[in-house]
């Protein structure tokens, strides 16, 4: 019986090592999978609780005219304003190299104008109800700029308007700036049109959320305004 004791001990040690190694492999997979599920889950939510402001996160603009991605967000924010979800719409985003307008200015121009990018007539929002915050090269920088403006103006709550897959990271960042924040994403625009595009952005945002949780900095993913 004594002769079998070393063999039994080695087997127990081997089993323990296998379990430890399996845990080391599985834990990151569970974290990534859980985060991806959370990105997908929050993307399906549309919280239209009343807020002080509706914040339209910036995306590309061309000579003061919003891209299709940005216009979809602006149209959704206008709908929220008209339904009384927020009394003020805040557009945010800085100026890229060589640009004449900031993303915030392009958004403001669209909201207070009486036509869409394609020339279709639309209802304008009063100029005093749209505030442009002309800062931010990414989501975190933009929301930090909005938070500074909110402190000056006494705003405390914000409904974040972006694309569905961006909702979890954006509202998390907004909350970390001190704003009470929730998301009402647009269901229009190029980013939500195909399953392939949706999957790509879910994976991208999963990486973005994990990176932010680890570093509390932005990934600087500038494409389509999801940085």
Task: State the main characteristics.
Cell_Envelope_Assoc; transmembrane helix; 227 residues; membrane; transmembrane; alpha/beta; Rossmann fold; 7 strands
Structure description:
This protein is of the alpha/beta class and 227 residues long. It has a single domain (51-225), classed as Rossmann fold, CATH 3.40.50. Helix content is 49%, strand content 13%. The protein contains 6 helices and 7 strands; from the N terminus they run αβββαβαβαβαβα. It has helices spanning 4-43, 68-82, 103-112, 139-153, 167-176, 195-215; strands at residues 51-56, 61-62, 65-66, 86-92, 130-133, 157-161, 180-183. Strands 5-4-1-6-7 form a 5-stranded parallel beta sheet. A hairpin with a 2-residue loop joins β2 (61-62) and β3. The radius of gyration is 23 Å and the shape is elongated. The model has no long low-confidence stretch (mean pLDDT 90). InterPro entries: Cell_Envelope_Assoc, DUF218. Keywords: Membrane, Transmembrane, Transmembrane helix. Residues 52-208 form the DUF218 domain. The chain crosses the membrane at residues 20-40.
pLDDT < 50 runs, ≥5 residues? none
Number of structurally distinct domains: 1
Q: Strand fraction band? A: 5-15%
CATH fold-level name: Rossmann fold
Radius of gyration: 23 Å
* Helical percentage: 40-55%
What is the residue-averaged pLDDT? 90
> Count of DSSP helices?
6
CATH level 1 class label: Alpha Beta
- Major sheet description: 5 strands, parallel
**CATH architecture title:** 3-Layer(aba) Sandwich
Q: Please state the structural category.
A: alpha/beta
Keywords: Membrane, Transmembrane, Transmembrane helix
Domain DUF218: 52-208
InterPro entries: Cell_Envelope_Assoc, DUF218
Transmembrane segments: 20-40
